[in-house]
Amino acid sequence: MIRIRHVLNKFSLGIILGLISIPVYGQLSMGARGLGMGQANLALPQYDWALFSNPALLNNEDISVGFYGLRNYGFAELTDMSAIASVPTRLGVTSVGFHRYGANLFNETRLRLGYKNDWRMLHFGIVGNYSHISFGGDYGSGGAIGIDVGVAAKVSNNLWVGAKTVNINRSSYRGINEDLPRETGIGFSYELNELALFAFDVVKDVNFPVAYRSGIEIKVIENLKGRVGITTEPLTYSLGFGYGREQWDVNFAVQKHELLGFSPGLDFMIYF
Amino acid sequence: MKGGEIGIALLMIFGLMLFKPESAHAQQDTTATQVEEQLEKAFEELDSEEVGEAGEQLTQFLEDLAANPVNINSSGLDDLLQVPGINLKIARAIIEFRSSKPFEEKSELLEVRGIGEATYQRMVPYITIGGAESRFRDMYMRPEYWMANRKVEVFSRYQQNLQMREGFREPDSAGGYLGSPAKYYQRFRITSNHLSLNLTQEKDPGETLQGVTGFDYNSGHVALTDNGKLKDFVIGDYSLSFGQGLVLWTGGAFGKGREVTGTISKNERGVKAYSSAQETDFFRGVAATYGEKLEITAFYSNRPRTASVISGDTTRFPTSAGFHRTENELERRNNIDQMVVGGRARLDTPVGLIGVSGYYNEFSSYIAKGTSLSNLYDFEGSENSVLGIDYRGLVGNAFVFGEVARSQNGGLGAVAGIETPVTDNTDLALSYRNYQKDFQSFLSSGFGERSSAPQNEEGFYVGARHQLNSLITLSGYIDQYRFASPRFGTSQATGGFDMLGLAELEFTPKLNVYLLIRNEIQDQEFEIINVRGAQELLMGEEKRASIRANFEYQVSPDVRLRSRIEFVRNKEAGASWEKGFLLYQDIRIEPTNELRIDGRISVFDTESFSTRVYQFESDLLYVLSNTVLYDQGQRAYVTVKYELTEYFDVWFKYGITIFEDTQVIGSGLSEIKGSVRNSVGLQIRLQL
After folding, report:
1. Can you list the alpha helix ranges (DSSP code H) found in A157-245?
2. Count of CB atoms within 10 A of residue A5's CB?
């Protein structure tokens, strides 16, 4: 029994180590709405989890609190969990977010503090991100502080554009030989007749091939929205829905990786 | 009393400064943006090295033109023709239009036959309808005449790469650079409507500088412009551009690019006082143009050049680099002389402009051509002369142009073309060029695949532009060419095919999108090891294709965003396809009338140098910045322009490029260790 568990642990370690060499894997952006739309969230207006994708789009209407969980490929060891709180003030929106990924053998913890404002119709945001990763069994651990910036603008009544750069200060982990990812992306979202929202992102991590992400959100009935999305590098398909009322919002999505299988994600938002 | 007058004058100046209308600032900034866009259109497709030659002068030409726009109510034909977008046909139409009534608004140009919205947008930064003072030209002999619109400008510019290049580490005796890594440029200029005085001085990185007189490069002129029949008179440095450029053309020229129909013919600038820091592409001596219907130009130039010595008094052709950084480079600095004397006559007839130009050139050394196959037909000897005849005119609705020239050895070069509207919303441009392999015209620049002197090229160009509707404009060109003798790097005749397709979409005046596709195929030789183990040279094709999407949106009057995605594919002959990618987000904000900030973050990822990507950057005034990016990495820059006071402007730029898998950048003396390359630039301008 012990033996089998040992083998399993080794097996999952292999997967984990394999995964951390795969680009941005539900590890950078959060939220089930975005996941359902193929993570095309760089220009998604009113996106509750913008703190993790494009801080220029932080929700500036309500005080909000939210929770999100994603079980990657069904492995408990590969779970993302995060929480977010945003407070709009007269001097801009401030937001704080927490994210934890992984289990004992490998885990990553992130704490994000963001600020957003707009000036002459240009939305801009900045995030200070502290990441800490540790490898179980004395393989080391380390932390890094990265700065993310984003801009966004409403180009016409129904077209938004957004762009972000992650880790603009080129930080790398102290204590271990790891770089904090550096990626830049540009996104567009287009709203058609208030019934359908199309989103398209192009994202490039300096070390990995360019990735395209796109998604559609469709209003099924009042308060209920259905979503589909597709990404490249890696190739995934996703599907999701969201139900929202005045005071709360719940979203569910599942993403299918070409080889690794299904990853279900769920978030819950409360507005004050 | 006198003091009182001065006091009042000062008060008035001060008052004017205080009450300067805000629109003037706004105007200047949109103009700057438009000039930048035009330069980008002209240059982004070119190799950086090629751009260096012509780019700076052209940048300065356009910036100057924007700063001293052409008066459409009073300027003559030639001045009008300097404006991008205006060809002979349009210029004549403008003159005809204004003979019945002067232009009161720039936009009245749209009423002139042949000027559509696109053409108008191209020319608008460079034209003016003239203020009240310029309408009174009856003060010829008064000092005010010479001082009218007087502007005194002082520039000081400093640029430096922050990484130490290998040349600065090497001791002088071992061939290292003697001077400091700073690049410094300064310029004093006084211009009025009829007078121009200029002194430009520059020191390149690695060159030494000893006091005010110790600059490596000095250029100056005294020039009179537009004085009745004496159109131009320059003592000092000047550039010459005549006809279609087959005999004499220095000072930069537009070529193939995103403007597919307006740039195949050249509009001569004649004698132009020179003030650029491009160190080799000009004349030094005296030049004058006189006349009206019949214009006569004569010039004499004699100046030292730098050439590598083969033996005794035999040298190679003078270099165009202008660097004198090491003991070796300094030793051969200005080691030969080049004398050029020549002239031009041009007649303005009812059927068009007919010109004859020619010159005689003499080097003080015997120029020996290079030894490779591609140098076979290059100039050799110490004397050369070129004579040519050119024509520009209207035939019905069509603008027709051409030039034929012959060099001393009997080599011929010719170019001819036509630009014509087909329907109201379609323009067509055709051009044929045939520069024989032994056509030796090294002071020229002809339309073609190569931006260097026209030689050894035959080609046919077809360009068209079609305004589909108010939203979409489509344009494209096809250019097929052939080099009859080996070009650089080949041993036989080669050819190629170049194609461009462009769709411009103007969704709203605030949102512009364009899609650009380019495709080029060129013969290329490659080596293989055959079955017997011997090297064999084969002919294959090098293919390059690129596709770009560019989005530009004016978020608010003070904020502009621009995004770009570009893919490049390249296949060297005998090799496999390689890919390149560029993505950038650009932002321009103008928080106040005095301050403008440009910033950009780019990511690039190319498999090789041949899949390199280019990006045109905003830079210090008069600096052309077409950055080439290859390998894998990121680049960011910020450029700030701040108008401290009415007469004092400051520019600042910081740029940084970080490579991912590279630890050494460049080679030889320009090698830099490490993966980071950053640079700063600072420029001030005093305008009195």
Report:
1. none
2. 9
Mean pLDDT over residues B206-211, rounded?
85
Residue of B471, B548, B554, B561 for testing the chain A interface, max A β-carbons within 10 Å: B561
Contact B230, B290 (CB under 8 A): yes
Return the DSSP state at B165: B
Token readout for B203 is 């020191």
Tell me how far apart the alpha carbons of residues B54 and B471 are, in angstroms, rounded to a whole number. Answer: 34
Tell me which H or E stretch contains B53: helix B48-67
CB B632 within 8 A of CB B606: yes
Inter-chain CB pairs, A–B, below 8 Å: 75
Place of tokens 């509707």: B469
Q: Are A226 and A244 in contact (CB under 8 A)?
A: no
Q: How far apart are CA B86 and CA B93, in angstroms?
A: 10
What share of residues in chain B are helix, strand, coil (percent, to 5)? 20, 50, 35
Tell me the percentage of chain A whose pLDDT exceeds 90.
62
What is the predicted ipTM? 0.84
Tell me what pLDDT residue B14 has. Answer: 39
Sign of CA dihedral B118, B124, B130, B131: positive
pLDDT tens for residues B564-589?
999 999 999 989 999 999 999 999 99
> By the 8 A CB rule, do A163 and A151 touch?
yes
- Dig out the tokens for B171 from the structure: 């001791």
Q: Give B501-531 pLDDT, tens digit per residue.
A: 999 998 888 899 999 999 999 999 998 888 8
Structure tokens at B574: 């005998």
User: Does residue A18 have a pLDDT over 60?
Assistant: no
Instruction: Report whether B385 contacts B401 (CB < 8 A).
Output: no
- Helix, strand or coil for residue B470? coil
If residue B61 lies in a helix (H) or strand (E), which one and from where to where? helix B48-67
CB-neighbour burial class of residue B122 (10 A; exposed 0-12, middle 13-18, buried 19+): buried
| CA separation for the pair B45, B628 (Å, rounded) | 11
Q: Cβ separation of B583 and A165 shorter than 8 Å? A: no
B381 half-sphere exposure, CB direction, 13 A CA radius: 12
pLDDT of residue B24: 36
A6 touches B: beta carbon within 8 Å? no
Contacts of B634 in chain A (CB under 8 A): 182, 184, 206
**Closest to A269 in 3D by CA, of A41, A61, A83, A112:** A83
